[in-house]
Write a structure and sequence with these properties.
The complex is a heterodimer of chains A (291) and B (304). Chain A is mostly helical and 291 residues long. Chain A has a single domain, classed as MetI-like fold (Orthogonal Bundle). Chain A contains 15 helices and no strands. Chain B has 304 residues and is mainly alpha-helical. Chain B has 2 domains: 47 residues; 228 residues, Orthogonal Bundle (MetI-like fold), CATH 1.10.3720. Helix content of chain B is 77%, strand content 1%. A two-stranded antiparallel sheet of chain B has the order 1-2. In chain B, a hairpin with a 7-residue loop joins strand 1 and strand 2.
């Protein structure tokens, strides 16, 4: 609206030519944004080019922009000498199962809070939201001790379950479920549908937009998560990608070019999500402040 | 004959309503169970452990408030607290100022606005571990592109990651680089929420763009800006992951922040669960204060 009317008023005043020369402000603005674009893209591009350089190129002074020889062996060695496939599949397993579990427990809780009246509902809902105030970093040691006393250190479940319930997920899905009319549920009840069937067959399909937002954020967060898998996956066979990258990077025996190649491969799924789903992501953040 | 059937239906109905009353609890139970086991119970246990010495993780002996006293008297902790304070203050200030600037600029931008919005958002998606590696590569003293550029224009070759002061500056810069898009998107949403007729009226009254930004946009954006201040403060206190691969807490401990300290108490010899838990409790109190502030601001925002 604002854009349209602004343009209309401009056109009334500049009657001769339709194209006005760009104002100083807009030139400044665009150059600042181009500067920002360079600061974001150049490091990422440089890093990607580095992953194709061999050690000689990587230590060349002055550094070369393009590799003298495209060292694709950095990538093949990641598969041959190091367990890239294992780290990648660990990340996939944790991300997929954790997201499925998060969607299940969060949506169930959201349904309970949105569609039932019961004693203690408001108190329990506030308790759920209050969990935002206790980030992992704060309870790092006691939660590690709890998980370890449950025998869950060095297990997939240890990486998946403890963070599967999220306050923001419950909140986002609940808010959406509140907009689903109660009459729909009532009429299903009259038709003899059980409560779980109402949740699974009626409410869940209708809540799909909210579930999608929570799913995307859960995937991103789990894929990039470092601190929690670092604590739980102490056995190399359970390393997720971020843990493997961080720990291999510190080891002298692991060639740096291979670490670079693994890093580049690890961000490809995220870049795909970025390209295809950034609208949903940006709207998700805009509406919920969720990260 | 007449009484018993009605009795039966009554009883059936009462078990039916009893079961129906249980239904919502069944739905919230799994989520609540995870919270209880993996957040609430550890949080309480953390407070408890903070009064014990873990004797290298083998057994716990009660030491009263000795851990807290140690934290407040230990010069290493004082350095870490100072690092954290410097990091949080500058991270928060720069994040807030830059996200405000870019949100306003992107909102005014007509040419390629969607593209620039995506670009500012890109780093938010990347794994912080990879971000640390990326900037470790770019900021390398000898073979990094930044110093090559600086040398070419006669700027010397600063040791971005090897000199303590520059290490902190680099950590703050990379921290801002990672999260800036997140704050910018929230502010852009805030800007979209402002009634556009206000801008139209101001334009008609002959206000310049700068006047509009200063006198209208910024005041109306104040509630969202406050949320950014609080969020970035909380995120600042939680920083750990990208620093791990950027500087590893160095040079000479110059970028070791509180979370790394807590982590090392649990996984580096000597293991000091009690000391780390006490630091966790203190970190909680700080984050709690800011979240409470967030809540108050949020309430005020609803009132507006």
């Amino acid at each position: 609206m604002r854009k349209l009317s602004a343009r209309a008023s401009q056109q009334t005043w500049t009657s001769v030519s339709n194209r006005k020369p760009p104002s100083v402000g807009s030139i400044l603005r665009t150059s600042l944004l181009i500067f920002l674009t360079l600061i974001v893209l150049i490091p990422v591009a440089w890093f990607m080019l580095s992953s194709f350089k061999d050690l000689t190129d990587l230590s060349a002074r002055p550094p070369k922009l393009l590799p003298t020889r495209w060292a694709t062996e950095n990538y093949t060695e990641a598969f041959k000498m190091y367990d890239y496939v294992r780290y990648f599949s660990n990340s996939v397993i944790v991300t997929v199962v954790a997201t499925a579990l998060t969607l299940l427990v969060n949506s169930m809780a959201a349904f309970g809070f949105a569609k039932y009246n019961f004693r203690g509902r408001d108190g329990l809902f506030v308790l759920t939201l209050a969990m935002i105030m206790i980030p992992l970093q704060v309870i790092l040691i006691p939660i590690y001790l709890v998980v370890s006393s449950l025998g869950m250190v060095n297990t997939y479940w240890g990486m998946i379950i403890p963070a599967a319930a999220t306050p923001t997920g419950v909140f986002v899905i609940r808010q959406y479920m509140l907009t689903i009319p109660d009459e729909l549920i009532e009429s299903a009840r009259i038709d003899g549908a059980g409560e779980f069937k109402i949740y699974a067959r009626i409410v869940m399909p209708l809540a799909r937009p909210a579930l999608a937002v929570v799913a995307i954020f859960s995937v991103l967060w789990r894929w990039n998560d470092f601190l929690w898998p670092l604590l739980i996956a102490q056995d190399e066979r359970l390393y997720t990608l971020p843990v493997a990258l961080a720990l291999l990077n510190g080891q002298l025996v692991v060639p740096y070019p291979v670490v670079l190649a693994m890093s580049v491969m690890s961000i490809i799924p995220v870049l795909l999500i970025f390209i295809f789903m950034q609208r949903q992501l940006i709207q998700g953040i805009a509406h919920t402040g969720l990260k | 004959m007449m009484v018993s059937p009605s009795n039966v239906t009554k009883r059936r109905r009462s078990t039916f309503t009893w079961r129906r009353r249980l239904v919502p609890y069944v739905f919230i139970a799994p989520n609540l169970f995870i919270f209880l086991t993996f957040i609430i119970w550890p949080a309480l246990r953390g407070i408890y452990i903070s009064f014990f010495d873990s004797m290298d993780g083998s057994q716990f002996t009660y030491v009263g408030t000795a851990n807290y006293k140690a934290i407040f008297n230990d010069p290493t902790v004082a350095t870490i607290a100072r690092n954290t304070a410097i990091y949080v203050v500058f991270y928060m200030l720069i994040s807030t100022l830059l996200s405000l600037t870019f949100a306003i600029i992107i909102n005014q931008q007509k040419f390629a606005r969607g593209f620039f919005r995506s670009i500012v958002f890109l780093p938010v998606m990347l794994s912080p571990i990879v971000v640390g590696l990326i900037w470790n590569d770019v900021l390398d003293r000898k073979v990094g592109p930044l110093n090559t550029l600086l040398e070419a224009i006669g700027g010397g070759s600063p040791g971005w990651l090897v000199e303590p002061k520059l290490g902190m500056i680099s950590a703050i810069f990379v921290g801002v680089w990672v999260h800036l898009g997140f704050y910018t998107i929230i502010l852009l949403a805030g800007l979209q929420g402002i009634d556009s007729s206000i801008f139209e009226a101001a334009t008609m009254d002959g206000a310049t763009r700068w006047q509009i930004t200063r006198r209208i946009t910024l005041p109306l954006l104040k509630p969202t800006t406050l949320i950014i201040v609080i969020l970035s403060t909380i995120h600042g206190f939680q920083s750990f992951d990208f620093i791990y691969t950027l500087t590893g807490g160095g040079p000479l401990g110059a970028t070791t922040l509180i979370v790394q300290y807590i982590y090392e108490r649990a996984f580096q010899s000597p293991i000091q669960y009690g000391l780390g838990s006490a630091a966790g409790v203190i970190l909680f109190l700080i984050i709690f204060a800011f979240t409470a502030l967030n809540f108050l601001v949020g309430k005020r925002r609803e009132a507006i």
